[in-house]
Please model this.
Amino acid sequence: MLSPPGRIRLITEQEALLPRLLPHIFREEIEADRFTWLAMTFDKNATKPTVQARVAAFKSALNTFVDDLRAADPIVEAAMTNSARLRAFVAAGMTNAIGVVRGGAARPYPSDSYRQAFMPAIWIASPLQTAGETNKVVGFPLLRRERRQALKALRFDQAITDPETRERVAWHVWTATLQPVSTFFNALRERLSYAQRAGGGSARSGPSYINGAAYNPRVLIAVLNIFRVYYNWFEARPCVGGRSGKADTEDVDAGTTMLRIPGSDIVAPITKRRSRRPIRRTPAMRMGIQENATTRTASW
Model:
């Protein structure tokens, strides 16, 4: 496999075949200690009211946690970014995920495929309830060598007490999400018929055909790479997170704008009402891997 230079960080769901395949596919990267693999699962059967209730409880708990941080040390809390607050919340609230066998006895959380000798037995239940991924559980099949050995020394039900290891594990739990891939492919399917499936569809009354669908995988791969680079690095668009505050917005110049009066051809000057607007940035800028004119950030 031709991999890009540098470290590789792979996030997958808990698929049974992956433990047999990935160690062979990424053998060179693993031996060079530049490969990280996180496996995750979440409640896909949760109803919308259940998800909304979990998200509301999470936001309330997070606000309480931030208030406690501010009361304990207002200077340190004021210097923290929203990301740092979330990581601290995860480090404080994450717990060991434990499975239960028939009869009520505790067992390691993952399936048998993820109980290999080289894998840490610990899986972590995340306190985050965001991005439609509620009740998320994260495992660490392959971490970099030093961190992997530290986790392998612990039982599946043993809490992580070392501060440095707990902080690093909390960072992995915080970043373990499939949401970026999901939004990318949602945008891809809307814009490129190449990515749609040709043939019959269950929601259609008759057979369908996507004109121009790519039957040659190499053509589709080339198109995906072009779209991926454009989507992540060149397509700037507004995006404001729920807890971003002013970090993702900028001041709007005072003045007026011209609007047509409904039901007439008269155009009148109207004073601008909003004082701030979303900053147009690429996903790479928001993730901290591409510099922009106002902020220089780096991923941990």
Summary: The mean pLDDT is 81.
